[in-house]
Design goal:
CATH superfamily: Ribonuclease Z/Hydroxyacylglutathione hydrolase-like
CATH class: Alpha Beta
Radius of gyration: 16 Å
Number of helices: 6
Order of helices and strands: EEEHEHEHHEEEEEEEHEEH
Largest sheet: 6 strands, mixed
Number of strands: 14
Strand order of the largest sheet: 1-2-3-4-5-6
Strand content: 25-35%
Length: about 210
């Protein structure tokens, strides 16, 4: 692929934060949790700016690092699905109260809607993936016949996202995974919100939560 997806493990729950880069164009930062020094050093070393901060959903462990990224790139806009926007500003909704840290983000946001989206030099597809949270999304990048999916906390290697949070719905999550993610090509590389990467084909064959 002409794009590069680089993983950094950040924050108290070992969240996967991704930097999506394309040549020397400003990059996308996906789901920044706290402790983003390695990310900003990487961006400095590559001489990359930031086109946007994309959130797969609004739980605290995927947004604790917004301020760190914006300190590095003050113009970087935050994008989130409107159904998860209330989570950003409310520690009870985003779950940060569980770690004794009442975190909220009340700055401006841009709206993620299902369908194709271009941000800077990056063109990709947004898939609405409610179930783990009301406004969860996945990002699908297609380039040169290859496909990659940043799945957030919807699909993991060998597992799926939790559905025991307020606003979660396990049946909806399973339906979205089967109708939207499993229709991607088997060779699609999946970059989840936690843990190692996988492929759609592997999850179709081996994920116990997706067995018919």
């Amino acid at each position: 692929m002409n794009i590069s997806i680089t993983k950094f493990v950040t924050g108290p729950l070992e969240t996967n934060t991704y930097v999506v880069s394309k040549g020397q164009e400003p990059a996308l930062v996906v789901d920044p949790s706290s402790g983003c020094d390695a990310i900003t050093e990487f961006l400095k070393s590559k001489k990359l700016g930031i086109a946007a901060i994309l959130l797969t959903h609004g739980h605290f462990d995927h947004l604790l690092g917004i301020s760190e990224i914006q300190a590095f790139a003050p113009g970087a806009e935050v994008w989130v699905h409107p159904d998860d926007r209330p989570l950003l500003a409310n520690p009870q909704f985003n779950g940060s109260f569980m770690i004794g840290r009442a975190f909220s983000y009340t700055g401006p946001v841009r709206t993620l809607s299902e369908g194709p989206l271009s941000v800077g030099a990056h063109s990709f597809e947004v898939l609405a993936m409610p179930g783990h949270s009301p406004g969860g999304v996945a990002f699908v990048f297609r380039d040169g016949g290859e496909t990659a999916c940043i799945s957030g906390d919807s699909l993991f290697a060998g597992s799926i996202g939790r559905s025991d949070f307020p606003g979660s719905d396990g049946d909806v999550l399973l339906r979205c995974i089967k109708e939207k993610l499993l229709t991607l090509p088997d060779e699609t590389v999946v970059y989840p919100g936690h843990g190692g990467r996988t492929t759609i084909g592997r999850e179709r064959r081996l994920n116990p939560y997706l067995a018919e």
